[in-house]
């Protein structure tokens, strides 16, 4: 469902090549530990109701979470119509709507038992309006050191990211827990290309010979993937 022919600045929505790279990388299982961690958190805290994935991309994480909470149904929101076409087919209990997260969401207040936000924009006011009073907000972010072996081929995560997350959510939310999901994985040359091309680093490949250096990688490499999963309750 495209509720909006979204007017957002160029470069906001994931493009078709980014989505294609993300589909391939995620289907390889490289980020499966994060999906498992999110599914476990959801199954421990939520029995049913609406689960919204804000900035859902292809719906990969939402589908894993819905598998873990069989009585819940899901809604994927994302401004990328290309990604949302995937998300609409990601799970039998999920719908999908193209939407700009910075606009008031097309969802009733106090309607969601869980909001999932994985590497996507965070609209604290809408999170707070849409969550039930006892709902849970789950925010996944990359940690400093994530993909560090790839150097400047990926945008590095600065040490202040977690503090900025706290600042963004401000007084509307209280953090109740934080998990770390860190592992070493061996990525093939194709997967290294996908991991670079599926995110914002794709926009910087024309600089400093990065495209040439990426293309010169022909063998596998061991890399670190590291994510934080922070859990929040709304403050009344
Ligand atoms: C790094 S991707 C993460 C996608 C998904 N959560 C995942 O991890 O596979 C960020 C997503 O946020 C979406 N996005 C960026 N700005 C947005 C906005 N203002 N409103 C809705 N979605 C937005 C992009 O289209 C993209 O799908």
Automatic annotation (TrEMBL):
Source domain of life: Bacteria
Protein's name in the database: rRNA (Guanine-N1)-methyltransferase
Species the sequence originates in: Amycolatopsis oliviviridis
Gene: rrmA
């Amino acid at each position: 469902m495209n509720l909006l022919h979204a007017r957002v600045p160029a470069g906001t929505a994931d493009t078709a090549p980014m989505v294609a790279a993300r589909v391939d990388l995620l289907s390889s299982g490289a980020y499966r530990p994060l999906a498992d961690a999110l599914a476990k958190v959801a199954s421990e805290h939520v029995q049913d109701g609406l689960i919204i994935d804000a900035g859902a991309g292809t719906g990969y994480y939402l589908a894993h979470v819905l598998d873990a909470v069989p009585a819940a149904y899901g809604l994927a929101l994302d401004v990328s119509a290309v990604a949302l076409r995937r998300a609409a087919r990601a799970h039998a209990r999920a719908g999908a709507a193209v939407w700009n997260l910075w606009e008031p969401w097309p969802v009733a207040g106090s309607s969601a038992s869980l909001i999932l936000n994985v590497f996507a924009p965070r609209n604290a006011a809408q999170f707070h309006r849409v969550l039930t009073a006892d709902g849970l907000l789950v925010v996944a972010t990359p940690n400093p050191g994530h993909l560090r072996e790839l150097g400047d081929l990926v945008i590095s995560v600065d040490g202040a990211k977690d503090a900025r997350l706290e600042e963004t959510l401000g007084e509307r939310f209280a953090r109740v827990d934080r998990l770390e999901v860190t592992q070493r994985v061996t990525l093939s040359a194709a997967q290294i290309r996908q991991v670079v091309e599926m995110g914002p680093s794709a926009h910087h490949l024309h600089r400093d010979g990065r495209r040439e250096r990426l293309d010169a990688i022909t063998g596998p490499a061991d890399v670190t993937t590291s994510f934080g999963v922070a859990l929040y309750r709304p403050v009344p």
